[in-house]
Amino acid sequence: MSNIKDVDLNLLIVLNVLLDERSVSGAAKRLNLSQPAVSGALKRLREAFHDPLFVRTRQGIRPTPQALQLIGPLKSVLRDIETIFAVTDFVPETADFTFTVAATDYAQTTFLAPLINRVNAIAPGIRFSVVPTDIRRMPEQLDRQEIDIAITVPEMAPPNCLSIELFDDRYVCALDVGHLLAEQELSLDKFCELDHVLVTPSNDGFFGPTDEALKKLGRERRVSVTIPNFLSLPSILSGSDFITVAPERILRPFEGSVKIFPPPFPLPPFRMIGVWHDHSENSPAHTWFRDQIRKLAIDLG
Predict the structure, then answer these.
(1) Whether residue 82 is found in the same domain as residue 147
(2) How far is CA 202 from the centre of its chain?
(3) Is the residue at 164 inside a domain?
(4) pLDDT for position 177
(5) Residue 295 belongs to a domain with what CATH number?
(6) 157-162 contacts at long range (C-beta below 8 A, 24 or more positions apart)
(7) Cα distance between the two ends of the chain
(8) What is the pLDDT of residues 104-119, one digit of tens each?
(9) How far apart, in whole angstroms, are the C-alpha atoms of residue 229 and residue 120?
(10) Count of alpha carbons within 13 Å of 195, Cβ hemisphere only?
C-alpha cells in the first residue's frame, strides 16, 4: 500500500462500492459516475495496493484474496469517517447515513419493517442495508463494524456487546384451516404423529426448540420438511396435512388461512434483543438510531 498521503481517500469509496456490486457498471450507476471514471479509479487502486484487486468473469468482476481481506477494515474506516462528520452535523431530517442491520426474516418482518418505516418518516435520507444473520460471524462483524446492530436472541448474543430488549414472543401451533383437526383439541399424542414443518434459518437439521422441549418429556415428533425462512411457510401449510410450531408474531397476519392455537405441552417464550459493539456507543447517528429502536420496542410492548 502506498503512503496514505499519496492516496485519494475518495478511491476507498469506489473500492467499497466495487466490492458490494462486483460490477464496474453497477458501481458507476450507484456512484453516479461514468464507467471510464470508475475504471480509472480502479487502475489507481491497483497501483496503490500493488494487487489486481478484481479479475473479470462472465458475471462481472471477482475480488482477489487481498481485496476480500480489505472488506472489513475498509467498511470500518468509512464508517469512522461518517462518524467524524456526524459528530458535528448529524441532523436526522437531512442526514445522509447508512445503517447495516443483521436480521433473520422473522426479525425483519416483526421488528425491522416497522423500524424502517419509522426512521424513514423522520429521516428520509437514511439508508438501510439488511444482511442475513450469521451467528458464527456475528462477533467479528460487530467488532469490525461490518454491521451496526444485530437482532437476535440473548443466547446468541456475542459477549462484551451492548444490548437492548426489543420484544417477547411465544411459540404457537398452526395448520391449514381446512385441516381435519382444525376444529378439534389436539392431544400430545396426535401432535407427535402429524407431519411437521420446521423453520431453521441456521440449517440445523431436523431438530429445533420444539424438539428440545419434547425430548425433556420423553417424546419426539416427525419433522417432514425443513425450510430456511418463514416466507414459504403459509404456502406449504395451505391445503396440506402439515402442522408447524412457529412464533406467534409471524403467524398472526395469516390468521384466517391458518388455524393458530397453543401447543399441547409447555413451550417457554423467548425474547428478541438488539446488540451492538461499543465502537459506536458515542456516535450521534448511532445514538439517535438506538433511540428510535427503544421507542419502537416500547410501542410494540
Answers:
(1) yes
(2) 12
(3) no
(4) 95
(5) 3.40.190.10
(6) 157/273, 157/275, 158/275, 161/275, 161/276, 161/277, 161/278, 162/275, 162/276, 162/277, 162/278, 162/281
(7) 51
(8) 999 999 999 999 999 9
(9) 26
(10) 10
